Amino acid sequence: MERVHSPRQGGERGTRRPGYLAAAAVFTVGMAGMTLPTPLYGLYRAQIGFSELIVTVVFAVYAVGVIGVLLALGDFSDRVGRRPVLLAAMALSAASALCFVLEGGLPLLFLGRLLSGLAAGLLSGAATATVLELAPEGRQSRAGFAATAANMGGLGCGPLLAGLLAQYAPWPLRLPYLVHLALVLVSAAVIRRLPETARRTGPAGPPRPPGLKVPPQVRGVFTATSLAAFAGFALLGLFTAVAPSFVAQTLEVANLAVSGAVVFSVFLGSTAGQLLTGRLGTRRSLPVGCLLLVVGLALVAGSLALRTLDLLVAGALCGGFGQGLGFRAGLTAVGRAAPADHRAGTISSFFVVAYTGISLPVVGVGAMAVWLGLRDAGLVFAVCVAALAACVGLYVLRRPPIAD
Predict the structure, then answer these.
(1) Do both 139 and 247 map to the same domain?
(2) Which of 27, 109, 224, 231 has most Cβ atoms within 10 angstroms of its Cβ?
């Protein structure tokens, strides 16, 4: 369906509207809510009483929400406009926060995580497009930086904020969500003032799934790059689901702010990796990213074996950097290789594989932790994901999927 773009900084006559930096700030707030519970899972375990397996399942429900939105509403903001979708994402994020504020057991935890996944699925595409489309001429590169930093930086800020508030402020299981809820309300007010950058010219019609079909001519590129994304997102899933338990149980560090900072470090590394992909080049970024991911996982395994926090932080930064390099290079490769009439579906398929990686492996860690213990389960995870990343890295080094 055809659409036209409104002016970059359009709005009512004589009124200055917020620009791409305001949209990036909204993006950051929204993504922070997705990882807010991460350092608090140990408190929920003590209060409600459940196993490490349930922790990982609660976390994985988030990915179910994201994948569901990707499958059902792939291009919805292109047809109904950016602002309605952004407001819907913020409404879902607020509802998720309220679930955690009112939490009285597992049902509301599951519902809160599902709502946050739905919000993330809506927010990621619409917010990225808004940031890029609001950038004035000559600042598209800065806008791309802002969108990347808002996405991964927001995911990293969530556990950092929750850990600091839970450790040093009252109401550890309520205050982080109340603070986020206030930020969401402010963000909704900002969204209402943002210029609309996508306007439909006809009726929106019902949501249309983008069609998760990978054309035959893309499958070679898709297989290698999506497996690299799977491995990288598995690392992110490990840190956002069970790293605080590693810190508390294996490394015997009870400070929740430290747990939040450890999780923040993996997203910091990912942001840096994505930002430097352009300088390194997409052809080299994929094998280098896989190599750094292997090194990062080796450091994580070393931290568990030696019970050393410094190695865990180093593994988070190194592995996150490799994940960022490989993910952006893989996304670029898939986007360039896919025919125009199948590009949306191919990219959506790529994200589905990536978000499967953030959920299924960590559920496996939770299951293994029941009978192996969390430390040994983490070591098995690190070895398996490192082996996958190494195989993909060697393959793309011999057969590069894309030329710069």
Answers:
(1) no
(2) 231
